[in-house]
Write a structure and sequence with these properties.
Structural class: alpha/beta
Number of helices: 7
Distance between the termini: 35 Å
Number of domains: 1
Order of helices and strands: EHHEHEHEHHEEH
Bound molecules: 3-methylbut-3-enyl trihydrogen diphosphate, magnesium ion
Number of strands: 6
Radius of gyration: 18 Å
CATH superfamily: Decaprenyl diphosphate synthase-like
Helix content: 40-55%
Largest sheet: 6 strands, parallel
Low-confidence stretches: none
Strand order of the largest sheet: 3-4-2-1-5-6
Mean pLDDT: 96
Strand content: 5-15%
Length: 238
């Protein structure tokens, strides 16, 4: 499979793991069946990205807006996070993957928070791909929290308003110290950002694909990588 890869790979890929519900509906299954397949695919694709040498992968698993879904669906999703995180931790150890979480995880049940904490501890000292799992993540909330943190510093007299720069602002975000995503892939065909990495994606290349997330294969990822190599990134220049 690796032989089908372009020479130049993006350093940081973001994936909006969308389309689980429609995948299930197409098969006459409950939406939760789609989430189960989607969770399994998350493990597969994360390991694939690590195997081809991607340095940073950020996956959107649950947005701040997803709390508006039916309670039953949310409960099923939280159960799957618990189950798949436990299994993924074992897998990811083989790949030396450093798992991090972005988003307000304090809103999750204690058992899940404990698992998140345990995952972070297990990942200490690893040097492989950084895998950011966005859970209860929202780009706007992230930006507001950064503004609040900086405002507090100004109020405390340790920072002057004119000292607030883009770099300093970036350091207040969940992704502090990481490069911005070069490529953001959205399966399921939706042409929107849905509150994902708003600040960080200022110059990301978007690749929207018609495949639903549970059906998304390493070959689809390769296709997105080839599409990425065709883009001319100008960053406002010529
Ligand atoms: C993505 O799949 C999973 C989450 C948002 C948690 P969806 O559940 O949004 O699937 P569709 O978009 O309804 O098909
Ligand atoms: C984005 O998908 C969030 C995740 C994949 C976790 P949604 O399904 O929530 O986005 P919308 O509602 O189609 O914008
Ligand atoms: Mg969706």
């Amino acid at each position: 499979m690796e032989t089908n890869l372009p020479v130049v790979l993006p350093e940081h890929i973001g994936i909006i793991m969308d389309g689980n519900g429609r995948w299930a509906k197409k098969r006459g299954l409950p939406r939760t069946a789609g989430h189960k397949e989607g969770a399994a695919n998350f493990r597969r694709i994360a390991r694939y990205c690590s195997s081809i040498g991607i340095r940073y992968l950020t996956v959107y698993a649950f947005s701040t807006e997803n709390w508006s879904r039916p309670a039953l669906e949310i409960r099923a999703l939280l159960g799957l996070f618990q189950e798949y995180l436990e299994e993924s931790i074992r897998d990811f150890a083989h790949d030396d993957i450093q798992v991090r979480f972005i988003g307000d995880t304090s809103a999750f049940p204690q058992k899940l928070q404990d698992l998140i904490q345990k995952t972070k501890e297990l990942c200490q000292g690893r040097t492989g791909m950084v895998l950011n799992i966005a859970m209860n993540y929202g780009g706007r909330t992230e930006i507001v929290q950064a503004a609040q943190a900086l405002a507090k510093k100004v109020k405390d007299g340790v920072l002057l308003p004119e000292e607030i720069t883009q770099e300093l602002f970036s350091q207040q975000l969940y992704t502090a110290g990481q490069p911005d995503p070069d490529l953001i892939i959205r399966p399921s065909g939706e042409n929107r950002i849905s509150n994902f990495l708003l600040w960080q994606s200022a110059y990301s290349e978007y690749v929207i694909m018609d495949v639903l997330w549970p059906d998304f294969t390493p070959e689809d990822l390769n296709a997105a990588l080839w599409e990425y190599t065709k883009r001319s990134r100008r960053f406002g220049g010529v």
